[in-house]
C-alpha cells in the first residue's frame, strides 16, 4: 500500500508556525496512523516527493539532498557505512531541509550534511540554525513525544531507554537523549569510552564538551555489554553539581568500551 500525504498542508503549517521543526513533524504525524511499529520514514519521504533514496559509502558526509530549485522533488544520498538507525535519522534530517520553507544550501555543494551537522544544536550561523532545525525535526518525527509519555511515568531507569530504542528503532544514544529531554526529572546523559568522558548532554542544552571532554569518569562501573548497573549514590561535586543536591548515577555498558551514564539530580 502506497502512503499518501498532503504536502501542502504540511508546508502551510510550517509557514504558519514560523518554520518550527516540531510543528512540521507533528503536521506529518497528524496524517499518519500511529501504531506499535517504528515510524516509516522511507515511505513518508517518498510520499512527500523524495523520488530517490540511495546509499553509498561516504567518507566526509552522512547524507546529501539534491533538489530542484523550487523543491518540487528531491533525491537523498545516505552513507552506507553508517548503521541503519543512523541512516533513518539522516533521511529524516534531509527531509526537513527539503520541506522547510526557508532552508537553502549554505555552500556550493548544496545540502551536504556531515556527522557534526547531525549533532548541531546551535544558532550562531544560518548553517548552524538550519542543521539544528533539521535535527529537531528528525527526532520529533522518529520518536514522537505523543507516543513517549508511557515511558516517562516512573522514576528514571535505563530499561525505559532501551524500550524507546527498540520501540522506535533509533540508536541507544538518541533514545537516551530523547528520554532525558522529555522526562520531568533532572537528567544528564554522559557519553564515555574506556571510562574517559567524550561529552555530556543536559537537554535541552547542546552537548557540553568543554566541561566534560577528556575527564575520567569519577566512578568506574564494570558490567557486561548491554547491561545497566544499579543506581549508585555519588558525590555531587564530582559530577559538576552544586552542593545541597543529591546525585545518583546508572551506567549502560556498550561494546568496544563505549558507555552511557544517566546522572539523576534531585533536591538534597
Q: How would you characterize this protein structure?
A:
With 268 residues, the protein is an alpha+beta fold. The protein has two domains: 7-142, Arc Repressor Mutant, subunit A (Orthogonal Bundle), CATH 1.10.10.2910; 147-267, Beta-Lactamase (2-Layer Sandwich). The chain has helices at 7-16, 21-29, 41-47, 84-99, 126-142, 145-148, 158-168, 172-182; strands spanning 50-56, 63-67, 74-79, 111-113, 186-193, 196-201, 232-234, 245-253, 258-267. The strands form two sheets. The chain has a five-stranded antiparallel beta sheet with strand order 6-5-9-8-7, with helices on one face. A four-stranded mixed beta sheet has the order 1-3-2-4, with helices on one face. The longest helix is centred in the middle third of the chain and has 17 residues, at 126-142. It is globular and about 55 Å long. The N and C termini lie far apart (55 Å). The model has no long low-confidence stretch (mean pLDDT 93).
Amino acid at each position: 500500500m502506497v502512503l499518501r500525504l498532503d504536502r501542502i498542508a504540511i508546508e502551510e503549517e510550517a509557514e504558519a508556525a514560523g518554520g518550527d521543526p516540531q510543528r512540521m513533524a507533528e503536521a506529518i504525524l497528524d496524517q499518519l496512523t500511529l501504531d506499535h511499529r517504528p515510524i516509516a520514514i522511507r515511505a513518508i519521504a517518498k510520499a512527500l516527493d523524495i523520488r530517490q533514496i540511495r546509499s553509498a559509502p561516504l567518507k566526509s558526509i552522512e547524507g546529501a539532498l539534491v533538489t530542484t530549485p523550487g523543491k518540487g522533488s528531491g533525491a537523498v544520498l545516505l552513507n552506507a557505512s553508517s548503521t541503519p538507525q543512523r541512516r533513518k535519522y539522516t533521511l529524516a534530517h534531509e527531509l526537513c531541509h527539503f520541506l522547510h520553507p526557508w532552508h537553502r544550501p549554505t555552500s556550493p555543494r548544496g545540502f551536504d550534511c556531515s556527522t557534526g551537522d547531525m549533532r548541531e544544536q546551535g544558532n550562531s550561523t544560518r548553517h548552524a540554525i538550519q542543521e539544528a532545525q533539521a535535527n529537531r525535526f528528525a527526532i520529533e518525527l522518529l520518536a514522537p513525544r505523543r507516543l513517549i509519555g508511557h515511558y516517562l511515568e516512573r522514576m528514571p531507569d535505563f530499561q525505559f531507554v532501551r524500550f524507546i530504542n527498540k520501540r522506535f528503532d533509533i540508536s541507544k544514544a538518541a533514545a537516551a537523549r530523547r528520554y532525558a529531554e522529555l522526562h520531568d526529572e533532572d537528567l544528564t546523559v554522559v557519553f564515555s569510552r574506556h571510562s574517559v568522558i567524550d561529552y555530556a548532554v543536559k537537554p535541552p542544552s547542546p552537548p557540553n564538551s568543554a566541561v566534560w571532554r577528556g575527564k575520567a569518569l569519577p566512578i568506574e562501573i564494570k558490567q557486561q555489554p548491554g547491561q545497566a548497573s544499579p543506581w549508585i549514590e555519588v558525590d555531587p561535586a564530582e559530577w559538576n553539581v552544586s552542593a545541597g543536591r543529591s546525585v545518583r548515577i546508572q551506567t549502560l555498558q556498550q561494546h568496544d568500551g563505549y558507555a552511557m551514564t544517566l546522572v539523576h539530580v534531585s533536591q538534597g
